[in-house]
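Action item from last week, closing it out:
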Amino acid sequence: MTGPVRREGTRDRRPARRRLRESYLAAAVPVIACLAVLCGLTAWTATGAAGTPPRIAVDDGRVLLPSAGEEDTSAFFRITNLGGAEDELVAVTSPAVERAVPVRDRSGTGTGAAAPDTAGPVRVPAGGAVDMSPLGTGPTVRVKVKAGERWQAGQVVPFVLHFRHGKPVGTLAIAIRPGS
């Protein structure tokens, strides 16, 4: 007989070592892939490329004085999104108004609404701004009419703008005469 002598009931260790090595290799592939993805995501977020949630700032609020005998008027704001994700203005409220239709697009371009002069949300792009105006986008509000009391030019009116993803933002609008 040539070759190693085996005792009865013992096995050769080479196949067990081979199975162990193959098991380690099989387990190493998904572990290395997960580590590579984790490192890539960490680098992506560390550089700021992953974005940030919307951060909304509202200023330059104006509300038109209602015409004589009218209760409906328009309000306008400058909305700035300092965050890395877009958001939408979905509602406008105020203790000084009975109701507010969220947004009207009077420009005819459909910006912020499905069709001209219809209600709908206003898209506020990431890192961008929306300037509302009488000829473009802005909420229509119905003024609360108290006996013998009317808004005056320069009066400050509080508003709260509600966004789809961000927190509500309180702001003030100054009542102005149309055309000023």
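Closing note: Residues 11-50 form one domain.
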